[in-house]
Amino acid sequence: MSVSSVLHVLGRLCLLFGGLLLVPLALALFESGFGNPVARALLGSSACSCALGLVLHLSFAKHVEEFDFEEAFAVVASAWVAFTLLGALPYWLSGAIPGVTDAAFESISGLSTTGASILNDPAQLGRPLLLWRALTHWVGGMGVIMLSLAILPALGAGGNFLFQAESTGSDSERLAPRIRDVSRILWLVYVGLTLLGVVAFALAGMSVFDAVCHSFATVATGGFSTRADSLASFAPAVQWTAVALMVLAGLNQALLFAALLGRPLQLLRNVETRTWLSLLALASLLGLWVLGSRAPELDASVLDVVFTVVSISSTTGFATVDFGLWPEPLHVVVLLLMLGGACGGSTSGSAKMFRHLLWVKSAWRELQRLLRPSGVFVVKAEGRPIAEPVVTRSVAYLVFYLCAACLGTLLLTLLGVGGEESLSGMVTCLSGVGPGLGAVGPASNFAGLPGAGKWLLMLAMLLGRLEFFAVLVLFSPLAWRR
Amino acid sequence: MRIIIAGAGAVGFHLAKELGVEGHNIAIIDVDPGKLEYLRDRLDVLTVQGTATSRASLEAAGTEGADLFIAVSNLDEVNMLACGAAHKLGVRRTLARVRNRDFTGESPLIDSLKLGITRFINPDEIAVDSIVALVSAPGSIDVGDFAGGQILLRSFDLEPGSSLADRPLSHLKEEYAGVPFLVASILRDGIHIVPRGSDQLQAGDRVYMLMARESLPVFRKVVSGSDRVQRVVIYGAERLGIDVARRLQGITNVVLIDEDRDRCHVAAAELDDTLVLNGSPNDADIQGQGRLSSADFFISAGRNEEHNLVLALLAKKRGARRNIVVTADPDIVSLLDSLDIDAVINPRLTMVGRLLRYVQVDHARAVLQAVQKIGENSAEVVEMLVRHGATAAGVSLRDLHLPHGALVGAVVRGDETFIPHGLTVLREGDQVVAFVLPGLRDRIKRLFARRGGLHFADDSGSAVKEPGPEPSRDGS
User: Fold this and answer.
1) Which of A43, A268, A423, A468 could make an S-S bridge to A400, C-beta 3.0–4.6 Å?
2) Do B277 and A375 touch (CB under 8 A)?
3) Exposed, middle or buried by CB within 10 Å (0-12, 13-18, 19+), for A109?
């Protein structure tokens, strides 16, 4: 592992991050000038990022020939840790969130597009910090590396490794021959979706500022809202708009791009798309049935149920209703939807449909193998064979996820957190959803957890966003062997 | 007709031989002087040494002014280019042997006519067609396709209790009106009988039936019952084996076996509904997993000729009901009768048969188009073209007074295929499939040839096939 190369690239990414901090700074200056502590905090944070970036970039040289998979993974993991801390600076320096732990929690929750918050009322942050919060979602949804690939000069051969190390989901087909063009196309779709969201939210009755923040949070499948009660106090038109946008954000963006180019069938025929949409419909119907038969007194509307299902399944985490009050079977449904995720190649977190499909298919294959030990069986999707490493990697993901969830739940309960909160909190953070059940449910937040518990959940969010491998690979001796 | 053949391999050799017998003038081009020498020693043809894509070779072979150019070398690209060049030099009809399915399948990648190629001939597709025809005809041992696959000959052994047994054929004809079929011959106690309307089928008869292709499902239903093909085991995950499996996998249970793990992976990736087993079909464990004992067909299509043969024999010992051997070795065909093998497919010779058909359909000099021998008693199915001015043209079948033991089974007229009756009047250009007992072929042939002229130089009777270039059971 060439630490020097890693730090060199990391420096460049920090510079980029410092530039991002200028966006909310501009809003703060526009609103109240330098007198505002928020503006000073944002300026300080930006300066810190840029200074750190410059120092790293200039002091360490990049050895292109040594930039390989392990360096790429190291860059991704260290960048996300660095951004978490740098992103927490505005909250902490401005005094809006006094504790370092809480500020870092809010920061990684934003970057990892989880949307779990420790704030009782986000509105108290003020508009510049709310914008920053939404912006961390928006940048984190696509990935900081992806952003740098699109706008920075070529990273050389390492770019491909970086792209693979950070991107989530299936090894989707290359949209363009050059990695730089691929990331540009994906950003184009992303920006397009975001603009669509801003316009749609504004038309549905939101203020422009709310529309921008919510569009950022929805397209990234994040879940930070500008209000304490999330989307509950917005009009139904806004909520329906959010449902539509969350569905779009949960689809494979490469296929969305193909659909925009006039090949909608490619999207609609895709097995992952179909599976996910069926899952949404099924879970909604189940929810309506359970609520209608077990808890008619709650008088839950179709919108509430559909919104919750789509919000949880796309791992966004907005809420219009406290599903913690719903009957127990629906708690399980919510947990299962968290484990499900949306489609590969989207900004959503969790396992995603393609992995579930691969698990089911490879498990079925093992049954066949028992009966026909000499049989040669190839896992296929849409008639096309899936390479064996892809199948085993998806199973490895399952193993990591389950280990992390079990271990995390155990540790949280040891820290004195309740069972329901521990399990749901761990799953929601690993999957990047946001609200959990019980005391960490949609009507509440994560402020009441012990400090160590928060750090544990922060680790879960990081692991979940980077899909374990990019982080865990650094613990393999192979990564450090010369 | 002057015909140029590019490629002096097995296909080129047999093609030259068959066409030469029919009186065509043949020139053959190949780079290998050894092959040409072998050819010169055996056939009366002009040989040109060189590549089929060079002007010198093409001109030396007399390509300008030739009627037909057939490129059958091993290389698709060379064949295609050679045909294009020949076309440029003025040959109107060119046939190219091309194995790449992207060119020959549905929605081909290349417009053959633009390249100056009249038609692509894919030997793999032809071989697969033959095997699938064998497998999809239940209970049949002798199978033939005539008139470009529109007329089928299928045979089956009538089992006791069949709904067809002990009833006059004329009754069956009424019952299955609208389904063109004809009982062409009955093999009873070792003797071929050409039946009349009053004859009855009996249990134990081997019945030969000619029918239009669209009648096959009906026929299958009537005959089969218990005889449905349930399981086909294929040995050899080569191109041919995989293609046969793909065609059969929707219809029946298909098992594909190969020793090579990588080949198995390729096959498993391509096939959706086939069980691919990695191992030797000779291994009891593999046989169990593939349920070899309940296989209706075992198809040997591996790389090794001898291995194929042995495995086919062993499979039958292990309970497979019928076996088919795919081979490139013409000698194996002659083992057919002495070994316990039900059918042999030689893709190259099948290909020769198909090529001959293309040559003859348009430019038939001989009346006789195809002959298929049936069983050891050598009853034959012959395919003939009604020539201009023939005795048979413009005469109803009843007035033609066919000799006893000969039967016109089917007529192809344009796009239409029908089973004729006594009042059917044959026309010039009709293609006729007839069933004849030994010794009658020449007499029949005369009825369809031009009156007075002896235009066919091949009264020896060895017109299309004989010493077994084409296996008697392989569907050409």
Assistant:
1) A468
2) yes
3) buried
- More reliable by pLDDT, B225 or A193: A193
Extract the tokens encoding B165.
């047994």
- Residues of A in Cβ contact (< 8 Å) with B273: none
Q: According to the model, what pLDDT value does residue A328 have? A: 92
What three-state secondary structure class fits B469?
Answer: coil
What is the average pLDDT across B54-74? 91
Whether residue B268 and residue A372 make contact (CB cut-off 8 A), yes or no, is no
Cα B424 to Cα A3, A140, B209, B394, B402, distances in angstroms: 92, 82, 19, 9, 13
Is there a contact between A372 and B277 if contact means CB atoms under 8 Å apart?
yes
pLDDT-derived band at B389 (thresholds 50, 70, 90) equals confident
Contact B276 A377 (CB under 8 A): yes
Residues B476, B473: Cα–Cα separation, whole Å:
8
Q: Which of B267, B272, B278 sits opposite A374 (nearest CB)?
A: B278
Mean pLDDT is lowest, of A117-121, B209-213, B356-360, for B356-360
User: Does the structure show a pLDDT above 80 at A141?
Assistant: yes
Cα B428–chain centre separation:
25
Q: Render pLDDT for B82-105 as a digit per residue (tens, 0 to 9).
A: 999 999 998 988 999 998 888 887
Q: Which residues of B touch A371 (CB under 8 A)?
A: 289
Q: What is the pLDDT of residue B396?
A: 84
pLDDT (0 to 100) of residue A97: 92
Q: What angle do CA A238, A241, A243 make, to 5 degrees?
A: 115
Question: Which of B246, B255, B274, B289 is the best mutation test for A, with the most CBs of A within 10 A?
Answer: B289
Q: Which secondary structure element, helix H or strand E, spans residue B277, and what is its range?
A: strand B274-278
What local confidence, expressed as pLDDT, does residue B353 receive? Answer: 73
- Which of A461, A468, A472 lies closest to A105, judged by CA? A461
What are the chain A neighbours of B245 within 8 Å (beta carbons)? none
Instruction: Report, as an integer, the average pLDDT of A172-188.
Output: 72
Global confidence as pTM: 0.76
Smallest Cα distance from B265 to chain A, Å: 6
Q: Token pair for residue A288?
A: 């309506």
**B289 to A375: CB separation less than 8 angstroms, yes or no:** yes
Do residues B192 and B379 touch, judged by C-beta distance below 8 A? yes
A81-98 pLDDT, tens digit per residue, is 999 999 999 999 999 999
Per-residue burial over B222-233, b if 16 or more Cβ lie within 10 Å, else e, is bbeeebebebbb
A389 lies within 8 A of chain B by CB: no
CB pairs under 8 A between A and B: 35
B269 versus B438: the higher-pLDDT residue is B269
Please give the Cα distance from B100 to A112 (Å, whole number).
50
What residue ranges do the domains of chain A occupy? 1-96+121-167, 353-470
Pairing of strands B2-6, B25-30: parallel
- Do the Cβ atoms of B234 and B299 come closer than 8 Å? yes
CB contact under 8 A, A376 and B264: yes
Q: Does A374 touch chain B (CB under 8 A)?
A: yes
Instruction: State the DSSP code for A438.
Output: G
Q: How far is CA B411 from the centre of its chain?
A: 18
**Residue ranges of domains in chain B, CATH in brackets:** 2-121 (3.40.50.720), 127-225 (3.30.70.1450), 231-349 (3.40.50.720)
**Which residue has better confidence, B134 or B228?**
B134
